Amino acid sequence: MAIELPPLPYAKDALEPHISANTLDFHHGKHHNTYVVNLNKAIDGTPMASKSLEEIIKASWAEKNMGVFNNAAQVWNHTFYWNSMKPNGGGKPTGDIAAKIDADFGSYEKFAEEFKAAGATQFGSGWAWLVLDGGKLKVTKTPNAELPMTSGATAILTMDVWEHAYYLDYQNRRPDYMSTFLDKLVNWDFANANLKAA
Ligand SMILES: [Fe+2]
């Protein structure tokens, strides 16, 4: 069963002016789609072809089959990233995640500082994450395609800090993109749903 490119959970221009339709056109339509196409090419005719995306990620990581892992993880990461944002999102969290952030980081401001620092200090391409690890919320970062799943942590939110995520709208200003992600885009409903399911 081939892995499919999921549609964006909102219209292509729904995140404007913060993330342009042009960026989403390339990022979803080209980058995300290419990971899907390359993954299907790599697993075609192998035992991986009958596995779920999560199973492919875990198996390829265990086997250090990076050609499969990098594409599979990037398919998963991007779908998770689209859902980590919403139109008119951003700002302080609500619901259970708000209380848990206060408990585990001290305050939303401390979390935001740590999350942006993770994104800023991820040299080159990668991801900043809010994860649940051992019952506690933590901020982590991963290089390239790596993701919390392989270390047993549960992803709650992610921010893509590959240049292709922001270059068309922000050029080299990664800090501006990260602030906008938190202030205008982050989807706390998705974070609450992931926390509840963890
Ligand atoms: Fe990306």
TrEMBL record:
<dbReference type="InterPro" id="IPR019831">
    <property type="entry name" value="Mn/Fe_SOD_N"/>
</dbReference>
<feature type="binding site">
    <location>
        <position position="164"/>
    </location>
    <ligand>
        <name>Mn(2+)</name>
    </ligand>
</feature>
<feature type="domain" description="Manganese/iron superoxide dismutase C-terminal">
    <location>
        <begin position="93"/>
        <end position="193"/>
    </location>
</feature>
<comment type="similarity">
    <text>Belongs to the iron/manganese superoxide dismutase family.</text>
</comment>
<comment type="function">
    <text>Destroys radicals which are normally produced within the cells and which are toxic to biological systems.</text>
</comment>
<dbReference type="Pfam" id="PF02777">
    <property type="entry name" value="Sod_Fe_C"/>
</dbReference>
<dbReference type="InterPro" id="IPR036324">
    <property type="entry name" value="Mn/Fe_SOD_N_sf"/>
</dbReference>
<comment type="function">
    <text>Destroys superoxide anion radicals which are normally produced within the cells and which are toxic to biological systems. Catalyzes the dismutation of superoxide anion radicals into O2 and H2O2 by successive reduction and oxidation of the transition metal ion at the active site.</text>
</comment>
<keyword id="KW-0560">Oxidoreductase</keyword>
<feature type="binding site">
    <location>
        <position position="160"/>
    </location>
    <ligand>
        <name>Mn(2+)</name>
    </ligand>
</feature>
<keyword id="KW-0479">Metal-binding</keyword>
<dbReference type="Pfam" id="PF00081">
    <property type="entry name" value="Sod_Fe_N"/>
</dbReference>
<feature type="binding site">
    <location>
        <position position="78"/>
    </location>
    <ligand>
        <name>Mn(2+)</name>
    </ligand>
</feature>
<dbReference type="GO" id="GO:0005737">
    <property type="term" value="C:cytoplasm"/>
</dbReference>
<protein>
    <recommendedName>
        <fullName>Superoxide dismutase</fullName>
        <ecNumber>1.15.1.1</ecNumber>
    </recommendedName>
</protein>
<dbReference type="InterPro" id="IPR036314">
    <property type="entry name" value="SOD_C_sf"/>
</dbReference>
<feature type="domain" description="Manganese/iron superoxide dismutase N-terminal">
    <location>
        <begin position="4"/>
        <end position="86"/>
    </location>
</feature>
<dbReference type="GO" id="GO:0004784">
    <property type="term" value="F:superoxide dismutase activity"/>
</dbReference>
<dbReference type="InterPro" id="IPR001189">
    <property type="entry name" value="Mn/Fe_SOD"/>
</dbReference>
<feature type="binding site">
    <location>
        <position position="27"/>
    </location>
    <ligand>
        <name>Mn(2+)</name>
    </ligand>
</feature>
<dbReference type="InterPro" id="IPR019833">
    <property type="entry name" value="Mn/Fe_SOD_BS"/>
</dbReference>
<dbReference type="InterPro" id="IPR019832">
    <property type="entry name" value="Mn/Fe_SOD_C"/>
</dbReference>
<keyword id="KW-0408">Iron</keyword>
<dbReference type="GO" id="GO:0046914">
    <property type="term" value="F:transition metal ion binding"/>
</dbReference>
